[in-house]
Amino acid sequence: MLAARSALRASMRSGAAPSSRLFSSSAINNKAVAVLGASGGIGQPLSLLLKNDPLVTKLSLFDIRLAPGVAADIGHVNTPAVTTGYGAEDNGLEKALEGAELVVIPAGVPRKPGMTRDDLFNTNASIVRDLAKAAAKVCPKAHLLIISNPVNSTVPIVAEVFKKAGVYDPKRLFGVTTLDVTRASTFLSGIASSHPAETIVPCVGGHSGPTIVPLLSQAKQGSAVKAGEFYEKLVHRIQYGGDEVVKAKVSAGSATLSMAYAAAVFSNSLIRAINGEGNVVECTYVDSPLYKDQGVDFFSSKVTLGPEGVKEIHPVGQITPEEEKLLEACLPELSKNIKKGVQWVSENP
Ligand SMILES: NC(=O)c1ccc[n+]([C@@H]2O[C@H](COP(=O)([O-])OP(=O)(O)OC[C@H]3O[C@@H](n4cnc5c(N)ncnc54)[C@H](O)[C@@H]3O)[C@@H](O)[C@H]2O)c1
Ligand SMILES: O=C(O)C[C@H](O)C(=O)O
User: Fold this and answer.
1) Within a domain: residue 21?
2) Quick one: which residues bind substrate (predicted)?
3) Ligand 2: which of 105, 111, 182 to mutate, most ligand atoms within 8 Å of CB?
4) Quick one: three-class SS letters along 119-174?
5) Per-chain mean pLDDT for the chain
6) Ligand 1 in contact with 152 (CB < 6 A)?
7) Domain shared by 233 and 152, yes or no
8) pLDDT one-digit tens code per residue, 263-283
9) Is the pTM value of this prediction over 0.80?
10) CATH number of the domain that residue 216 is part of
11) Is the Cβ atom of 37 under 6 angstroms away from ligand 1?
């Protein structure tokens, strides 16, 4: 089966040359991927998209419910990835993680209307901690891709778990913020009447309301939106795009399909970079030197990916006074979210 064609592919890539395929495959090495939380709203379509990625040869699906059924279903798709599902019984989590080179984690509860992502902290922190502990033990060199919210806090939790286990490699831990870039591209291209694939808007900071900082001035089409009310509306829509979906789904959860797409794109980019492809750039939330002096140890910016994961973290670059203000609002909130995760895991190891 050929990879799905999609001109949207390039809109996800924050700096690299546009491509017209969802999954580009330019290397011969292939990868074993584990999805933890594979039966959920994100997990199922994400697993299907990963099964359709020609660079994935082994797909291990873990969930506390339904994973063998999801794997049996997806396993009938005639692409190379050998797909197996594991439940919590019989050491299923460790079996799913054996040999994994990428571990993608969408496990955890989603928001309902009126909730913030931080309201998910109490439930999702322990889910992510426990999955990270298993990964640190079974596949300590794997690349960890964290989707579970609140991403601003769950990524630092994973880092602390890996540090405690003595296996932390900051180059291999990623908070998936690709959906913010996807939304920004979609919304701006709608205004600028441009092709989404050619409308690339880096989003920096974190992944929640004011911590999402879209850099419209760095998009070719950014000048279509002048400073003022119109600009503010667009920024607000990008920052609160998640709320738009939560509201539209009327208590049935949050973004799942667009998130699955975004995570599949990020996974494919990372695999291509690990396999040696050059100039693979994505915005992602990583252990970053950029604002550590302001108490922000994790920050999303453009990152060149490479064989070891993070190859180069790019600074935010030239931004407008409006974007400076957004960044000023982002940093203290992000610092608070990061500290919350670190403190919680130190009290709940
Ligand atoms: N990073 C992003 O941009 C982004 C976007 C959308 C959603 N999310 C987040 O992703 C998470 C999942 O969202 P969803 O809509 O798929 O939720 P969901 O409830 O549909 O699915 C979550 C899945 O996780 C499983 N699960 C729960 N505990 C587990 C454990 N200990 N081990 C393995 N699996 C476990 C559940 O059984 C379920 O199948 C939420 O926290 C949501 O906020 C993040
Ligand atoms: O909004 C949410 O809670 C889910 C996700 O973080 C999103 O941005 O869609």
Assistant:
1) no
2) 111, 117, 149, 183
3) 111
4) HHHHHHHHHHHHHHHHHHHHCCCCEEEECCCCHHHHHHHHHHHHHHCCCCCHHHEE
5) 92
6) no
7) no
8) 999 999 999 999 999 999 999
9) yes
10) 3.90.110.10
11) yes
